[in-house]
């Protein structure tokens, strides 16, 4: 049975997922949030209310927390038992065609018979 790299190295898979999630989350924080916050601050300022200065820090923390949750989910999905369930429903790390070919080969037992083999009945 071929074991996927996610199952072989679940910690690496989790770190990769963390980084893959953190980069777009921080990009969103840098690109999309400032104009939104400016609009909110402008409207709030018109109302005479001041928002706390820790707002940006809280948003950054939320981005990191979001990436951490994604890494935890990736780590759980790398557990061999979970991977087997994912394969059964068609979303495992091994492509379905490769999995079916592997299972057929295991079923057929394609082990070559030695030339000098004589069955003993």
TrEMBL record:
Where does the record place Acidic residues bias?
A: 106-121
Source domain of life: Bacteria
Name under which the protein is recorded: Holin
- Provide the residue span(s) of the region labelled Disordered: 102-121
Query: What are the TM regions of this chain, as residue ranges?
Result: 21-41, 53-78
Query: Keywords, A to Z?
Result: Membrane, Transmembrane, Transmembrane helix
